[in-house]
Write a structure and sequence with these properties.
Length: 459
């Protein structure tokens, strides 16, 4: 049952007619994300402030329609899809950087600020916001917080949740609350900020974020390390960390992803290599040079064919663009893909790499892996034609097998993409029934009417 026109008129009165889209051609762009699924909402609403959000949610409780919060819609698990209809609440027009405090290394922003634009803005103050999801050029800070986004720099700096000090949140029942602090420490009451970060818009709508910043590093150096064996590259990652060398990023790409990215970007990647590592280090100029040489030495001793250091920031940027192009470029291998983001302990990366290779040989399916080797976060992709029932069944069985193996290694089923609708069926593999029951009670306490982002995570 859709939202009645008279209710949509009330919503338009709240946010303004230009901020309430109803025509099918207008709401088409808000019916999908980075998954292949699409669900049309009854309308798309663009609130301008927390009062607008509160008023719409209050109305939703009164009339029983669903509200799905949305950032840029770049999510990989369907978290921002209106799977049960209702309205999509797009936060992209709340996009101001409110304050940047150089003395206390904090910033206050609205949720619609694009992550990459925020990083550029604070860099002008000599400051640094480390979280860097591959979608940083278009994803928003509110969406990053809701999904618990990560990125290559997590190996040294952690993920989005480590930089969110406080939030302004509108609860599903319409109350506006403030969580957390603007200080480095704070232990008064339950940590509602951490509860909200990664909750995928199921517990509240983020309308303001207080973010921790760091001083901008003086020097950064990027290198490409080329390997003839994937297992050797994976073992090198563990050896680098064992030696006490902590780069700010250690990414890896297998041969399939190298060839795909090179065809897409023409970045000069070695298409004959079985694997490459992209390693980035930073510090003062002297520290950077020393750490880079230490990391390069470990790689050479581990069997690297070649270590290439980027000669300029422009060369390094092209390399990162190639790495970040892998996911969209993969469709050269097939019309469809299943995209997972498992995480294993770093020392277990060789085990999961061997498992993926063996599974690909056994099933005959193209399987591509790349990702954040520094923290064990593997982006595992199965390329297929979903119209082929044999391929589809093999692919789904492969996902089950990889998930089970990941858990036996002490890993987790999602490092940064979240649960959404694509992983909800697998939650019981990792989360015990008692914990799931507690999570459902938490959801019910925040959202007794069940109006906010239904059909996600705890289905």
């Amino acid at each position: 049952m859709g939202v009645p026109p008279r209710i949509l008129n009330k919503i338009a009165d709240i946010v303004g007619k230009s901020n309430c889209l109803r025509q099918k051609e207008d709401i088409l762009c808000y019916s999908y994300d980075a998954t292949p699924d699409a669900y049309y909402p009854d309308a798309v609403v663009f609130p301008q402030n927390s009062v607008h959000v509160s008023s719409v949610l209050t109305l939703a409780n009164q009339h029983g329609f669903f509200v799905t919060p949305r950032g840029a819609g770049s999510g990989m698990t369907g978290g921002s899809l209106a799977v049960r209809g209702g309205i999509v609440m797009a936060m992209t027009r709340m996009n101001r950087i409110l304050t940047v405090d150089r003395d206390n290394l904090v910033a206050v922003v609205e949720p619609g600020v694009v992550t990459g634009e925020f990083q550029k803005a604070v860099a002008e103050y000599g400051l640094f916001y480390p979280p860097d999801p591959s979608s940083a050029a278009f994803s928003t800070l509110g969406g990053n917080a809701a999904e618990g986004a990560g990125g290559p720099r997590a190996v040294k700096y952690g993920v989005t949740r480590d930089y969110v000090l406080g939030l302004e949140v509108v609860l599903p029942t319409g109350e506006i609350i403030n969580t957390g602090v603007q200080t480095a420490k704070g232990v008064v009451g339950y940590d509602l900020t951490r509860l909200m970060v990664g909750s995928e818009g199921t517990l509240g709508v983020i309308t303001k974020l207080t973010l921790r910043l760091l001083p901008l590093p003086e020097s950064v150096q990027t290198m490409t390390v080329i390997y003839d064996r994937m297992e050797t590259a994976a073992e090198a990652v563990s050896e680098i960390i064992r030696r006490g060398i902590i780069p700010r990023a250690i990414e890896y790409m297998d041969n399939a992803s190298i060839r795909c990215a090179e065809a897409y970007m023409k970045a000069g990647l070695p298409v004959d290599a079985e694997a490459i590592l992209i390693i980035e280090v930073e510090g003062t100029a002297e520290e950077t040079a020393r750490i880079a040489e230490q990391a390069a030495s470990v790689c050479r001793k581990s069997g690297a064919r070649e270590v290439k250091i980027a000669k300029s920031s422009q060369e390094a940027e092209i390399l990162w663009q190639a790495r970040k192009s892998v996911s969209p470029a993969l469709f050269t291998y097939g019309p469809d893909k299943i995209n997972e983001d498992i995480v294993v302990p770093r020392s277990k990366i060789p085990d999961i790499v061997k498992k993926i290779k063996a599974l690909s040989r056994r099933t005959g399916l193209t399987m591509v892996s790349f990702g954040h080797a520094g923290d064990g976060n593997i982006h595992f992709n199965i390329m297929l034609d979903k119209k082929d029932p044999v391929q589809r069944e093999k692919a789904l069985q492969s996902v089950e097998e990889i998930f089970d193996f990941t858990l036996t290694l002490g890993g987790t089923l999602s490092g940064e993409h979240g649960v959404g609708i694509t992983k909800s069926a697998y939650m019981t593999k990792e989360i015990r029934p008692e914990s799931l029951a507690l999570m459902r009670r938490v959801k019910a306490a925040f959202d007794p009417a069940g109006i906010l982002n239904p059909g996600k995570m705890l289905v």
